[in-house]
From TrEMBL, chain A:
GO MF assignments: NADH dehydrogenase activity; oxidoreductase activity, acting on NAD(P)H, quinone or similar compound as acceptor; quinone binding
Name of the featured protein: NADH-quinone oxidoreductase subunit H
Compartmental location: Cell membrane; Membrane
Gene name, Swiss-Prot/TrEMBL: nuoH
Enzyme class, spelled out: translocase
Family: Belongs to the complex I subunit 1 family.
Keyword Transmembrane listed: yes
Entry-linked PROSITE patterns: COMPLEX1_ND1_1 (PS00667), COMPLEX1_ND1_2 (PS00668)
Membrane topology of this protein: Multi-pass membrane protein
UniProt entry tagged with the keyword Ion transport: no
HAMAP family recorded: NDH1_NuoH
GO cellular component, one term: plasma membrane
PANTHER family tied to this protein: NADH DEHYDROGENASE SUBUNIT 1, NADH-UBIQUINONE OXIDOREDUCTASE CHAIN 1
Automatic annotation (TrEMBL), chain B:
Pfam families, per database record: Oxidored_q3 (PF00499)
Cellular compartments annotated: Cell membrane
Enzyme Commission designation: 7.1.1.-
Keyword Membrane: yes
Keyword vocabulary terms for this entry: Cell membrane, Membrane, NAD, Quinone, Transmembrane, Transmembrane helix
GO terms assigned for molecular function: NADH dehydrogenase (ubiquinone) activity; quinone binding
Role this protein plays: NDH-1 shuttles electrons from NADH, via FMN and iron-sulfur (Fe-S) centers, to quinones in the respiratory chain. Couples the redox reaction to proton translocation (for every two electrons transferred, four hydrogen ions are translocated across the cytoplasmic membrane), and thus conserves the redox energy in a proton gradient.
Taxonomic classification: Bacteria, Pseudomonadati, Thermodesulfobacteriota, Desulfobulbia, Desulfobulbales
GO cellular component labels: plasma membrane
Name under which the protein is recorded: NADH-quinone oxidoreductase subunit J
Family the entry assigns: Belongs to the complex I subunit 6 family.
From TrEMBL, chain C:
Cofactor comment text: Binds 2 [4Fe-4S] clusters per subunit.
A Pfam family matched in the record: Fer4
Positions contributing to [4Fe-4S] cluster 1 binding: C77, C80, C83, C128
A GO cellular component entry from the record: plasma membrane
UniProt keyword Translocase present: yes
Cofactor annotation: [4Fe-4S] cluster
Subunit structure, interactors included: NDH-1 is composed of 14 different subunits. Subunits NuoA, H, J, K, L, M, N constitute the membrane sector of the complex.
Protein's name in the database: NADH-quinone oxidoreductase subunit I
Taxonomy, superkingdom: Bacteria
Binding sites annotated in the UniProt record for [4Fe-4S] cluster 2: C87, C118, C121, C124
Naturally occurring in which organism (per UniProt): Desulforhopalus singaporensis
Family under the similarity heading: Belongs to the complex I 23 kDa subunit family.
Main location: membrane
One MF annotation (Gene Ontology) recorded for this entry: 4 iron, 4 sulfur cluster binding
């Protein structure tokens, strides 16, 4: 094993372990500011470090500090303390580990050796995600049960029943996808979606399997206990559901586990239905051949985009009331400088790529980085959809939820399987 | 070397989980120890490079079935005073161990007589989803369908048995 | 009397509504419209930039209490105990003493309001026969570092002037 091999393993494991964790902050920030803007409010934007508020991201640091230093209470009436402590760990751990099978770039070739770009190098892909989604139920059940609290038990019951019953339509939606793709390996699925249908439409799962997309997205919303299916928390009825007895960091671990699960299911939707790391119309091979023109286009496009972005920052980041020597304008000036600095660095890197010889390893690495960026952008857009839906739709009633799952989604998923297999058999 | 260590770790965990299932008094603890056993068994399958069986063990046994059992335990909300009093528990356990000793002795003896064939590397496709599927649907189609029929019969039977009481009312 | 009954048509029975998705997309279009408008131009958000921009306090706002005084600075209160009797939270404690300036027979020696008990109902103001206690200081944010600082004595209550002119106060119809 050469040094490069070890480095690549470290990079891919670090990516799949830390990116979900970093995205917790992004998710929480997007959720709060997004909710604010959707409701014509501004969201948290006051916490600052030396006056720099980073558009409200500093609020996350403040919240984290608060949660870490709060008193960690385990009430005296809780008998099964081991399970009580174990529950948040299970939820968090299963969420983080299930991201391991999601590929974030195509197989990278360096020195003639190929390196797979996913955290855990197994090819069972989607099945691993299903298995771990099943495990996260344990955390919820144990939390609700060991809290010895009526709201906790009710929340745990609701959540567990919901997750178990929505796993079935989700699994069936995946079956019809697997019939189309012919593999469970997520990397191969993503590669399949790089092709073009009739030569001009990207062969994304969303285009080949629109019904499966709807079923899968609905089931994924239910699996992550998000609105409109968040009646496991149902703060108006059962206070906070299964984590009502949790405080401080144990609550925070639940909270973070929820957002990591959100990230993972977004990544899963993107990989299964929206082409994963593929840039539309540009499969990996095409990308490698046109890497240099693309780098040139990026070199021109980035400063232009940055110019407009800087204008937006300058317009938005001001005090909307009379104020002398507006510190927010000063703040905006520094943000713009930082972004321009970043752009300059990226421009230099792109220039280096333009100058290097074509077909080499540098091009391959550049393509992989482009794909990582594409993947992250797609996942962020999917996360926004989650947030957007949360602040649009009201909550389902519990019987409506089960009715939707068993009487609408399940027959639809079965029908989809029949139609898909008929079409696949007819075409082959 | 590494896989040997993993094998021992998984075996010990599996046995400990099984012991926990028998010895713990509270059903939730017993069920959770069974989960540990199931996951360790999945680990053992993966050491045999049986990927499909590994992940099916995780999804079906460790995931679905055990979570249903735990769900029911939570639903019944069993407290300590609901449990039966088992005074002679340790006597029974000791008796069971005494009965099992000759059986285990025989098993160990039989395991010792297995000829020490060197492990051979099977093809890289072994245990993969495609390979298992092909074998299942080409060579073993009839037994597979019969088993699924059996499961269907069981399912119908369960529904009939569960629905009986409501008809009576 | 004949209460006005407004019948609201129950929706959700047509096929288009029962599919959910179309209605969901309509709702999402609305929320995205709000999001996008506010993202591009955040100057029209319905927010008050609070610590920097104070809210306008109307005259009838029940803020922190104060005791009023005569032209010559002597306290108007005659220690009649009306406010103390009327207080539902029992946060007012008065001790009466003899009054020597000839304006009345009694005056308060001490007049304590425990702001941690007070529920700002304004009954004391309504009960007062002499307009001696008012809640027109315009203080809506009562903060302190310890419990003692919330216990207002007679000097604290007399020190603060009303935030509004006498005319406005009368017009507000306290």
């Amino acid at each position: 094993m050469s040094l490069l091999d070890i480095l690549m393993i470290a990079i891919r494991v670090a990516f799949s372990a830390f990116v979900p964790l970093c995205f917790i902050a992004v998710c929480v920030w997007m959720e709060r500011r997004g909710a604010g803007f959707i409701q014509d409010r501004s969201g948290p934007n006051r916490a600052n470090i030396f006056g720099f508020r980073a558009a409200g991201l500093v609020q996350n640091l403040a919240d984290a500090a608060k949660l870490i230093f709060k008193e960690d209470i385990i009430s005296a009436h809780i008998k099964h303390k081991f399970f009580f402590v174990l529950a948040p760990i299970i939820v968090f751990f299963t969420a983080v580990v299930s991201f391991g099978v999601v590929p974030f770039a195509d197989t990278l070739v360096i020195n003639g050796k190929s390196y797979i770009m996913q955290g855990i190098p197994i090819d069972i892909g989607i099945l691993w995600f299903l298995a771990l989604a099943g495990f996260s139920v344990y955390g919820i059940i144990l939390a609700g049960w060991s809290s010895t609290n009526k709201y906790g038990i009710l929340g745990g019951l609701r959540s567990a029943a919901q997750v178990i019953s929505y796993e079935i339509p989700m699994g069936l939606a995946i079956v019809s996808l697997l019939i189309v793709y012919g593999t469970v390996n997520l990397n191969e699925i993503a590669r399949f979606q790089g092709e073009l249908l009739f030569g001009f439409i990207p062969m994304w799962g969303a285009i080949l399997q629109p019904l499966a997309l709807v079923i899968f997205v609905v089931a994924a919303f239910a699996e992550t206990n998000r609105t409109p299916f968040d009646l496991a928390e149902g703060e108006s009825e059962i206070v906070a559901g299964f984590h009502v007895e949790y405080s401080a960091m144990k609550f925070a671990v639940f909270f973070m586990g929820e957002y990591v699960a959100l990230f993972v299911s977004s990544a899963m939707i993107v990989t299964l239905f929206f082409g994963g790391y593929q840039i539309p119309f540009l499969a990996t091979k095409t990308l490698i051949t046109i890497a240099k023109p693309l780098a040139f286009v990026l070199m021109i496009g980035l400063p232009v985009g940055m110019y407009y972005f800087a204008g937006w920052i300058r317009r938005s980041n001001i005090s909307h009331y009379p104020r002398e020597n507006d510190p927010r304008a000063f703040e905006a000036k520094w943000y713009i400088r930082c972004f321009w600095g970043l752009i300059v660095i990226v421009e230099l890197l792109l220039l280096a790529i333009l100058l290097c010889q074509s077909g080499g390893d540098t091009i391959n690495i550049f393509v992989a980085l482009l794909q990582v960026c594409t993947f992250l952008v797609k996942v962020t857009m999917m996360l926004f959809v989650y947030i957007w839906v949360r602040w649009t739709l009201p909550r389902f009633r519990y019987d409506q939820l089960q009715k939707l799952g068993w009487q609408m989604l399940l027959p639809l998923a079965l029908l989809n399987i029949f139609i898909t297999s008929a079409v696949v058999v007819a075409l082959s | 070397m590494f896989s040997e260590g993993l094998f021992y770790a998984f075996s010990v965990l599996a046995v400990l989980g099984a012991l926990g299932l028998v010895l713990f008094r509270h059903p939730m603890r017993g069920a959770m120890s069974l989960v540990v056993t199931m996951i360790s068994l999945a680990g053992l399958y993966s050491l045999l490079s049986a990927k499909l069986i590994f992940v099916l063990q995780l999804i079906v046994y460790a995931g679905a079935i055990m979570s249903l059992i735990i769900f029911i335990i939570m639903f019944l909300n069993i407290q300590d005073n609901d449990l039966p009093v088992e005074e002679k528990r340790f006597a029974y356990t000791a008796g069971g161990i005494v009965v099992l000793i000759p059986v285990v002795y025989f098993l160990i003896k039989i395991a010792g007589t297995i000829p020490g064939v060197e492990a051979t590397i099977v093809g890289s496709g072994f245990g993969g989803i495609k390979e298992v599927g092909l074998v299942l649907f080409q060579d073993w189609l009839l037994p597979f369908e019969i088993v699924s029929l059996l499961l269907l019969v069981t399912l119908v039977g369960a529904v009939v048995l569960a629905g009986k009481r409501r008809v009576g009312k | 009397m004949g209460a006005k009954v407004k019948t609201i048509a129950r929706r959700g029975s047509t096929l288009q509504e029962r599919i959910f998705l179309i209605e969901i997309f309509k709702g999402m279009a609305t929320t995205f419209g709000h999001f996008w408008r506010n993202l591009l131009d955040n100057s029209k958000l319905y927010v008050r930039h609070y610590p920097e921009v104070k809210p306008e306090i109307p005259v009838r706002w029940r803020g922190r209490h104060r005791l009023t005084s005569h032209e010559d600075g002597s306290v108007k209160c005659v220690a009649c105990f009306m406010c103390q009797t009327n207080c539902p939270a029992q946060c007012i404690q008065i001790q009466a003493g003899e009054r020597l300036d000839g304006k009345a027979e009694k005056m308060p020696v001490s007049f304590n309001i425990d702001l941690l008990e007070c529920i700002y109902c304004g009954y004391c103001v309504e009960a007062c026969p002499l307009d001696a206690i008012r809640m027109d200081t315009g203080i809506y944010s009562v903060t302190g570092k310890d419990r003692e600082s919330f216990n207002m004595g007679i000097d604290d209550l007399l020190a603060k002037q009303g935030a509004f002119t006498e005319e406005d106060y009368k017009k507000g119809g306290a």
